[in-house]
Amino acid sequence: MQNANVVINWIAGAAVVATVAAWGVIGGSAESNEKVIADANGNLHVPQGYRSSYQMLGSWAVAADQGQGSKEIHAVYASPGVIASYLKNGRFPDGAVFVKEVFEAATQHMTTGTVSHAGNFKGWFVMLKDSSNRYPANKLWGDGWGWSWFEADNPSRTTSTDYKTDCQSCHTPAQATDWIYVEGYPPLKR
Question: What is the per-residue burial (b if ≥16 Cβ within 10 Å, else e) of 5-16?
């Protein structure tokens, strides 16, 4: 029985290593993540299986324009190693990937009070850290990142055309923290 457990543990360990290697997250370099979520021209897509292989950073509730509750819920994930790297030196490493899920919020009265929770899924916002600017001809790369928005029905084709007009304007207040709103993510508290 003990030998069977050793074999099972070895197989499980090998499966984890194979999965991590397939995702290209060993070392967390831009080159390895690039192969996973970007094509040869730097066009990004939503990484498969990020909910189970990435680290949850936190969520945001965007207030309703009128009345109680929220109009959107944003849940944000980071590729493995990003949190540890940021806590160590206060910087995001090349190859860091962020995936923000955007949901319409549903607001209702519950026993705890009026609450908002994730409702209909709207899409993803994906960022890939790249301080070397690997794709200078691609208008979705610049200021140290690849940037893209994806509609819920198509995680492999972005609707963004230029990061400066389609993405960066929302991140301008976070420029001092490398375009990421770190104050909203408890795991990044130093």
Answer: eeeeeeeeeeee
Rounded distance, CA 32 to CA 25, Å? 6
Instruction: Give dist(CA 181, CA 127) in Å, integer.
Output: 13
Torsion of CA 167, 145, 189, 113, to 10 degrees: 30
d(CA 36, CA 33): 5
d(CA 77, CA 68): 27
CB hemisphere CA count around 87 (13 angstroms): 11
Q: Residue 171 — φ and ψ, nearest 5°?
A: -100, 0
DSSP secondary structure code for residue 44 in this structure: B
* Strand-pair partners of 102: 74, 123
Q: Residue 12: which H helix or E strand, with range?
A: helix 2-23
Residue 180's SS3 state is: coil
Amino acid at 167: C
- Lowest-pLDDT range, 15-19, 110-114, 164-168? 15-19
**Contact assessment for residue 102 and residue 123, using Cβ atoms and an 8 Å cutoff:** yes
Are 147 and 163 a contacting pair, CB within 8 Å?
A: yes
pLDDT tens by residue, 121-152: 999 999 999 999 899 999 999 999 999 999 99
Question: Can you say whether residue 133 is alpha, beta or left, with left for phi > 0 and alpha for psi between -120 and 50 degrees?
Answer: left
